[in-house]
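Reminder to self: tokens first, then the designed residues, so the page reads top to bottom the way the pipeline ran.
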């Protein structure tokens, strides 16, 4: 019998990078770069060409098109592999195809799809991207930037709903901005559990800025291959996605989907999730311009977050400088603990906390909302082995530390060891941050099991309200940088 934790583990282990299948709106070839022979191909070749998949396996790429073969040779020495448009003479009706190439392990991966009108006349799209990105620079906050980004992507792509989706420290996501047509459901201010995007899917989102699914009801097209090992399709534009994800989209009444990754400092910060109520073919060039847009958007997010972090740090640094000067003056006139207590509120403001405690050689001074003395001593002893560079933070004491009972009002701690001899430590505490969260469906039922033991995504996305308890407001990177300054209080 599979339990719920196993369900999530199985989702995290799904080998989505090697599905050995593609979406049907194009075709796929894997080429050995040494002899330029086709070693794998999608099974739908005969839908596009006058020969079959079996007919080209093991053949040189020139069998498909001598012109494309020459282009591939040129691309192999290029620093950036750019797509191009070709008329493939062996195709039915001599169609134009937009062809892209990338390297994967020991193969060259060629993917192509029929060109659409915007692929042939893309100039007006470039000006649209320029106009949209210039408008973003006026955004006064991250939320406003995401709102403008959602509107811009809706205009560029034509999708019915665009959601800006931000991850928390546990990779639960929240919709912080949205643009949509009236007939589509609103998920603004709703939260989605981390299980909706398994670990390996998040890694693919981190390394692939764009993922497009024109039809959530498509039938995967299997690859035929001359090699035994499955081909890594992590970078494939046509890669078939998890059947669980397709079912998830259909349960949301989504007929087509596109995602654009928001990357900050190399980490997956969030996503733009684009949904449409029906299948939506979208030209390769439009998707390419959406990718260009997200690259510029990511740079603006990075800049705005860096500016906000700098402002916070310098504000906290100024408080540190003032506090240190006053504290050192008072310490010459009284004991360290008396000076600490006299500046109690200043210590709280120093790292924007609700309580603070000074431990020195077993003596304790406290101010504000703090645990009992016995709890503080037990806490200090337990986190002593967890300090990294004499700094430790936690936003959920009851979930992290065992065997200690804390007041319900206290959830977060930031601890700095100032000196080891004599042992001097400051602990800042934060109250529990109680708030109501609107979830898109029950987060405890992110996956379900039917009687056949088949894992499926939840079927309902109706608003499910839960009260968040047991967590404090997170300590930001700026707070951690400022906390490190307090080590200078030592001798």
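Designed residues (491 positions):
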């Amino acid at each position: 019998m599979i339990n719920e934790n196993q369900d999530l583990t199985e989702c995290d282990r799904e080998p989505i990078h090697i599905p050995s299948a593609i979406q049907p709106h194009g075709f796929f070839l894997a080429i050995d770069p040494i002899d330029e022979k086709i070693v794998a191909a999608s099974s739908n070749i005969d839908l596009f060409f006058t020969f079959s998949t079996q007919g080209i396996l093991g053949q040189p790429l020139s069998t498909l098109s001598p012109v494309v073969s020459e282009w591939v040779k040129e691309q192999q020495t290029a620093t950036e592999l750019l797509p191009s448009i070709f008329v493939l003479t062996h195709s039915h009706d001599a169609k134009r195809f937009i062809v892209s190439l990338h390297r994967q392990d020991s193969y060259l991966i060629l993917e192509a799809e029929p060109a659409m009108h915007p692929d042939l006349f893309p100039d007006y799209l470039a000006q649209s991207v320029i106009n949209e990105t210039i408008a973003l620079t006026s955004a006064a906050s991250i939320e406003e930037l995401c709102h403008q980004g959602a509107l811009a992507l809706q205009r560029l792509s034509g999708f019915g709903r665009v959601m800006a989706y931000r991850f928390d420290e546990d990779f639960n996501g929240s919709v912080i901005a949205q643009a949509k047509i009236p007939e589509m459901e609103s998920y603004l201010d709703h939260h989605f559990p981390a299980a909706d995007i398994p670990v390996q899917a998040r890694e693919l989102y981190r390394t692939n800025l764009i993922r497009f699914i024109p039809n959530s009801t498509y039938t995967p097209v299997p690859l035929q291959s001359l090699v035994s090992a499955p081909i890594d399709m992590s970078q494939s534009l046509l890669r078939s996605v998890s059947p669980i994800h397709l079912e998830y989209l259909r349960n949301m009444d989504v007929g087509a989907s596109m995602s654009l990754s928001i990357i900050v400092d190399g980490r997956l910060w969030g996503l733009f999730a684009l949904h449409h109520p029906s299948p939506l073919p979208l030209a390769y060039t439009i998707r390419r311009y959406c990718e260009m847009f997200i690259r510029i958007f990511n740079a603006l997010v990075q800049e705005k977050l860096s500016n906000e972090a700098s402002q916070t740090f310098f504000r906290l640094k100024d408080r540190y400088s003032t506090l240190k000067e006053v504290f050192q003056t008072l310490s010459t006139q009284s004991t360290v603990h008396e000076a600490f207590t006299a500046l109690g509120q200043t210590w709280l403001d120093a790292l924007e906390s609700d309580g603070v405690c000074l431990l020195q050689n077993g003596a304790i001074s406290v101010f504000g909302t703090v645990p009992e003395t016995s709890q503080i001593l037990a806490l200090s002893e337990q986190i002593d082995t967890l300090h990294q560079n004499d700094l430790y933070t936690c936003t959920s004491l009851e979930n992290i530390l065992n065997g200690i009972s804390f007041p319900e009002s206290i959830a977060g701690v930031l601890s700095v060891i100032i000196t080891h001899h004599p042992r001097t430590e400051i602990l800042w505490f934060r109250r529990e941050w109680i708030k109501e969260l609107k979830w898109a469906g029950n987060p405890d039922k992110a996956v379900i099991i039917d009687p056949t033991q088949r894992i499926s995504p939840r079927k309902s996305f109706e608003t499910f309200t839960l009260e968040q308890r047991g967590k404090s407001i997170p300590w930001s990177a700026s707070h951690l940088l400022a906390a490190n300054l307090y080590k200078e209080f030592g001798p």
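The chain has a mean pLDDT of 91.
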